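User: Predict the structure for this protein chain, please.
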Amino acid sequence: MSHELRTPLNSILGFTDVLLQGLPGALNQEQRRQLDFVRQSGQQLLGLVDNALDLARIESGRSGITLASVDLGTTVRKVVAPMDVIAAERFIGLDCVCDEGLLVTTDADKLGQVVRNLVTNAIKFTDPGGTVTVSVHGDPDGATVRVADTGVGIAPEDQKRIFEPFEQVDLGGTAHGTGLGLAICRELCHLLGYEITLESVVGQGSRFSIHVPLDAEPHDEGPAGGSS
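Assistant: Here is the predicted structure, written as structure tokens:
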């Protein structure tokens, strides 16, 4: 399924890039504008395919965990640093404040995917001139990774259901995603034995927190919110 879905999408994106580079011939402004739409739509669809496959692997118990001792602050900074370019393009400040020397045993790739999804959402739903802050701070029984933004915020009645697959909320015309990013975050946190929580005020922003306990017990399989 992964191969069958990705191959034609990658072909569409590849040939679109060739056209935009002008290799077969020069493009006028309108042709370039329309090809940009094709590329953006193709990238969005490829992202949806990747997210759907990730969620399917997690819920089927086929997303294995590779544990290692890592510096939590360093791990999070490596994930956040490349996203500064995306934030700058939207005129959004992206700050990363991490305690040093917090050694935890985790799957760095899966934790990184959670942080990446949260930061991507925060940037998407924050207006130009706003700020996204990623922090890592130690506490007596572990550490907390937090992604806070000054964006549109989420109403109390929507704060639980946004973690369900394909659930989206009306954010006053703000661009919507696939509705899978937060579902994947929840399932990956469950897989790692972590808890993810949300605090949000409409018009003031949102704050997602992941508690990483010293004695986390990863789960081998099974969705966090589905039936068992």
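The chain has six helices and seven strands.
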